[in-house]
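Example record

The entry below shows one chain as it appears in the dataset: sequence first, then structure tokens.
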Amino acid sequence: MALKPTRSFMFVPGNKESMIEKSAKAGADALILDLEDSVPHAEKAAARDLVASKIDWLVEQGQRLYVRINRSPHLYDLDDLLAVVRPGVEGIYISKPNGYEDVVTASSMISEAEWRNGVALGSLGLIPLLETAKALQDAYEIACVPRVTAIVGATAKNADVARALNTVWSPEGRETLYLKSRIVMAARAAGKRPIGGVWQQVRDLDGLRASSLNDRALGMDGELALHPSNVPVINEVYSPSQEDVAYYRGMIAALEEAQANGRASVIYDGEHIDIAHVKTAHDIIALAEAFD
């Protein structure tokens, strides 16, 4: 099971029918229909029913779907899973795992829901948001869980990660540099995708762009979005530009010409390049084509 390239995962409150319907036009690569923090406790059962009722419609719109489920102090919510584990849902997001063991338990619960609902075993991916100190410490082990397709190293001002680590937020994100780099390393080592974010000052698009560029530079593949206005910025940052594609196509052509003349390297645009650089060029071009 592998997660296809995904620049933007946009949260949508699961108790707001109009927002769910509008979200299909937001341009996000994938939606996260949220049953957890964005839903008041008294509305959680109704939100579960609403989300379940909208899955088929959203799939018909061509929208990729994830659902974030609730948890108690002891276990993730099986009722949530039984309601939303069905064809068309790409995966499940879980918040605040206390460590590796919680993620393994959540994976087993998804297997149980797949079996009860007649869904092929292993159909749904699992993406944990690593928001506790223990989960961040266990990042590699969590990424190695077979059902896990990505791990999230998202941070926000005064939110769960900040509280868990007692960090003080800064726009530059210096206080989260280590933990985000740790997420990237763990995900890559396990062959999974690292996801970053999250920018909660949703009207500050310049700040979002700077934050997204920082996460992209660290090696994140995409990030969480909290508002439709943020999606275009995120998609742009995580997409190779036309200039990038032209540059890397030129690099490939330059090395091919050098190899035809019996050389293994060449000076291209003032820089020494060889096969290692061209492998990167092919990866970037393939990523651009994935989003065309």
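Notes for this example: The longest strand covers residues 89-95. The chain is about 45% helix and 15% strand.
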